[in-house]
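Supplementary Text 2. Reproducibility record for the structural model of the 176-residue chain.

All settings were left at their defaults, and a single model was retained for analysis rather than an ensemble. We include the record here because the model underlies the residue-level annotations in Supplementary Table 4.
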Amino acid sequence: MKIFFETEHFSVRKLEPEDAVRLYENHAEDKVKKWFPNESYADIEEAKGAIEFFAACVEENRLPFVLAIQLKETGELIGDTGVSEVDGEPEAVEIGYQICDKYSGRGYATEVLEAMTEFSFTRFGATVSYGRVVHGNVASSRVLEKAGYMFVEEEFGAEDDPYGNGMLVYKKNSTG
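Retained model, structure tokens:
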């Protein structure tokens, strides 16, 4: 098992085939379905296919670069995080994260977001990281703000906006 970085509570590692059931379950939670319905998997087979794709990207060191968030204390897969390309901005990445409901509200999302942001700056030479949030997802906005991201604009018409109400765009610049 390849660990890319650790935080106080997590080992962040490559997704493995045996993670499929837990990945499926995590993405089937109501909050994922509510805020990003296109990020829920139809079944465990679809989750396995996603893991194969993400693992290949990791092996080839290319984006999207999605990793498993494993709780150090128990070894449980409690979420995932990753970065993807930003069209027209080769030095930028867009970050995403998901922590399962059981572990929400403990500061874990902020902890992993801060670490993944720094990892992406170092690993991919990114100078800016964006986070995008569906209008109304106050919890995700707060996580981004706590991790040092600044609100920059509202975005309308994005193809991944599930409700067409717009997205809030946050930005963090590299300090290096």
